[in-house]
Structure formats: C-alpha cells, structure tokens
Amino acid sequence: MITITNKTDCCGCGACASRCVTSCITMAPDEEGFNYPLVDTDKCIHCGLCERVCPLLHKPQPHEILAVIGCKNKNEAVRFVSSSGGFFSLAAEKSWDVRGQSSGRPLTTTGTLDISLSQAAMQ
C-alpha cells in the first residue's frame, strides 16, 4: 500500500491510482490544490502494484549511454514546418523508396486530427 508521509515523495501523477486493481486509491487535492493519493485501507489487498508503478519509488538507475543519434533535414523550408527537425519526412521518403509505408497524424487548424493517408503511402 502506497503511503505518502512527505509530499516531496509524490509527484501527483496518479499512476498508483490508475494501477490499483481494487480502485481503493483516489487522487485528492490538498489545501494548495495538488493531488495526492488517498488509500481506502478497507478495500486495499496489499498487492503492492501501486508501489511498483510509482516513478518516485523507482527512479531510473544511472546507465551507460550506448549511442546518441541526431538528424536534421538540410531543407530549411521542411525544418521550419516540422516538429522533428524534418527527420520524419526524410524517414518516410526513404521508406517509400523501398515500398514501405509511414504514417503521421497532423492536427488541423481546428485542433482535430487529420486522418487522411498521404498520396505516396497510397501508391
């Protein structure tokens, strides 16, 4: 059962509540409006899943970085309208060259997803 004794030990992400199989954990705001888990101890079965999923109880361990790959499109016009530095369009073009497929879902001006396929992917 997850127990928060110091508020700095909780980021309020709600992962514990989402993972709980008995739904005994709810997220409730404190006096400052920050969410913290509240556990209904009568419903808790002490399975420990909430503690296993907690990102603050299981911080990533330092590890050796094996490789870092960077890429940017040389075409400035493509880079200007891209959120990936133009990488996606380069990768998609290479995929199409070998008859592969790629997909992406841009937002429209109204904030909805454009679910149309590109002409190149349909050929």
Can you describe this structure?
It is built from five helices and two strands; from the N terminus they run H-E-E-H-H-H-H. Strands 1-2 form a two-stranded antiparallel ribbon. The chain has 123 residues and is α+β, with helices and mostly antiparallel strands. The radius of gyration is 23 Å and the shape is elongated.
Short description:
With 123 residues, the protein is α+β, with helices and mostly antiparallel strands.
Q: Strand content of the residues, in percent?
A: 5-15%
**Number of helices, where a helix is a run of at least 4 consecutive DSSP H or I residues:** 5
Global geometry: elongated
Largest beta-sheet details: 2 strands, antiparallel
**Computed structural class:** alpha+beta
Number of strands: 2
What is the rounded Rg? 23 Å
Low-confidence stretches: 119-123
Share of helical residues: 10-25%
Strand order of the largest sheet: 1-2
Instruction: Give the N-terminus to C-terminus distance in angstroms.
Output: 54 Å
Oligomer: single chain
